[in-house]
Amino acid sequence: MTEELQEQSTANEAPEEMPDEELLYDLADLFKIFSDTTRIKILYALMGRELSVSDIAEATETSQSAVSHQLRILKQSRLVKFRRDGRNINYSLADDHVYTMLNQGMSHICE
């Protein structure tokens, strides 16, 4: 069976047992992060590239103050990471999981 077919069959099967309550709580908190349009815009702006706060503000048509506030939340949730470049700080998606969640969500609502 190919890996893709294994993933599809796994996605359609009921879990053997309910995950631990703490894990479910953490998962719910993660999904809450995606409930803010500004945060979603920031994540989309960072797809495949690294940007400064001012570049993100321009791309999302949002104030730098609002972007900084939302980046703090996204960093705490480990959805974005940052890299210092002299006096500048550049942000990017934390890993491929974030990219996948955004793409899967968009796929789901566009069906």
Characterization of this structure:
The protein has helices at about 5-10, 20-35, 35-45, 55-60, 65-75, 95-110, and strands at about 50, 80-85, 90-95. The chain is an alpha+beta fold. It has a three-stranded antiparallel β-sheet. Strand 2 and strand 3 (about 90-95) form a beta hairpin. It is elongated and about 50 Å long. About 15% of the residues are buried.
Task: Provide a compact summary of the structure.
With 111 residues, this protein is of the alpha+beta class.
Helix-strand layout with pairing:
Blueprint: H1 3-12, H2 21-33, H3 37-45, E1 51-52, H4 53-60, H5 64-76, E2 80-85, E3 88-93, H6 96-110
Antiparallel strand pairs: 1-3, 2-3
Helix pairs in contact: 3-4, 4-5
GO molecular function, one term: DNA-binding transcription factor activity
Keywords: DNA-binding, Transcription, Transcription regulation
Pfam family, one: HTH_5
